[in-house]
Amino acid sequence: MAATGGCTGGRRLADALRELEVDRAFGLPGVHNLPAWNALPQQGIRLIGVRHEQSAAFAADGYARATGRLGVAVVTTGPGAANTLAAVGEAHASASPVIVIATDVPSTLRTPGVVRGSLHETSDQAAMFAPVTKATLTADSPDDIARVVRRAGRIARRPQSGPVYVGIPADFLTAEAADPLPAESTEVIHRVDVADLLQAREVLSTARRPVIWAGGGALRAGAGEALGELAECLAAPIITTYAARGIVPPDHPCRASNPVHTPEVGALWDEADVVLAVGTDFDGMMTQNWRMPKPPTLITINVDTADAAKNYPPDLQLTGDAREVTENLALGMPRRAGLTELSRRLDDIETRVRRRIRREEPQAAELLTALAETVPDDAVLVSDMCVAGYWIGGFYRVPAPRKLAYPMGWGTLGFGFPASLGVAAAGGGRAVCVTGDGGFLYGVGELATAIQEKLPITVVVVDDSGYGMLRYDQTRGGLPHEGVDLVTPDFVGLAKSFGVDADRVDGFGRAFRRRLREFTRSEEPNLLVVAAELTPPLNTSPRWYRR
Ligand SMILES: Cc1ncc(C[n+]2csc(CCOP(=O)(O)OP(=O)(O)O)c2C)c(N)n1
């Protein structure tokens, strides 16, 4: 029944989102979800319109990664909802707290068990989301909207965080909805077992060569400072996964700056007698598909016991919040000798790796130097699945937590530019997006969003006129180039046609550095095309050294 004077379901949706401290969302309207476009702004939620639903979910993910807060996408029924799936899958694989709010066909037009053929109808919209979310929730009445949205927020944020689907039959948004019940508090508190904690402290303090392996769960829990302290006590190197890059500052004495795919850093793992793994599941991309040997002793810290144990069997598991457990572990940990030698060794590894990059791939060295010199401290570097992005994911010195967003994860091409919309809309600093020409074309229409919303984004398109990574694979395999060489548009002209300032340079040399500096100091969105072809780095699978 349409509301006649009381509150609508749309208002309940907006209120529930406000309770979750949501103040911006990303979406695309349709006849079904149109009431949300009025209801959300009325409650102070800025609903940013994008040009494709996939971008709405990527932007929500980018927002969540940059801020640690909930990212929200608002999309319409059927194709609108389906268009988000790849981006929701990326958020799922990267444990990003995202809520996708999708309308469904009006309850009044549904016949259970039958697809009648009303606009945008599917047999089971929620089921499409099941494999790529933590939970799928559907409101069963207008009154139920507040409950499902609150619940979605709790589930999305609770570690291990991740995306949640919320389905709302379209008629519920305009129907009258009763006052919601008071919000329940259902915080789950894990208390780590004290005997296990003492045992872990004993094993670590007597280890000969301990190593700390930090994953995305550690970063999201804010465990960086505690990990840094623990590493100093133990004189243990900290190896980070892609998701944990920036967890300790680049000048921390224990940081292994480069990825574990470089043999020198891999050797730290091989030599370890005890590994402490925090907030990680040891996925295939980090472990060279599990070719890294199981360490003699593995201790894990994770909220999810099964996730912690699924790839390398742990000898001891500490179940709980990564920060809390790490802080407890560090308390009373005796300080061991060896920090100076460790730091010297890590510096030496860093020097050798950088020297090798300069020798073997001078263009990548120039790119990394240019980024280090020009990207402002508060900016977030957002990289796509492109060769330049793989260099960044592995070798860029990330200055702080949440200053790199990298879709590995699920390995989702097309993430970079639309995720940058969310990063920039968060207001914490500029988004500097590095993407290939192929990946950029996935979301090129978002140039319109960037200019309309005046979002501070610099897009660096590395134009090699093709799917460079796959061209490399074909060349390596001695195969002719099929499907990998692309006609690319005049990106500068294209950007300018949207009103976005743009320029093109050759290579990553001085002209690139100068323009990047200028562009990243602007208030406006802009785009810098770089004609360059890079060789993939050691952290890409064809170049893994463990065979
Ligand atoms: C959604 C999706 N589709 C396809 C791929 C496979 N893929 C990985 S990298 C890549 C090429 C990307 O080309 P471009 O953006 O131009 O970057 P480059 O490799 O040239 O640096 C492709 C097609 C993927 N990872 N994700």
Automatic annotation (TrEMBL):
It comes from the Bacteria. Gene3D superfamilies: 3.40.50.970, TPP-binding domain. Residues 390-529 form the Thiamine pyrophosphate enzyme TPP-binding domain. Residues 199-329 form the Thiamine pyrophosphate enzyme central domain. Keywords: Thiamine pyrophosphate. Residues 8-128 form the Thiamine pyrophosphate enzyme N-terminal TPP-binding domain. Pfam families: TPP_enzyme_C, TPP_enzyme_M, TPP_enzyme_N. Belongs to the TPP enzyme family. This is Thiamine pyrophosphate-binding protein.
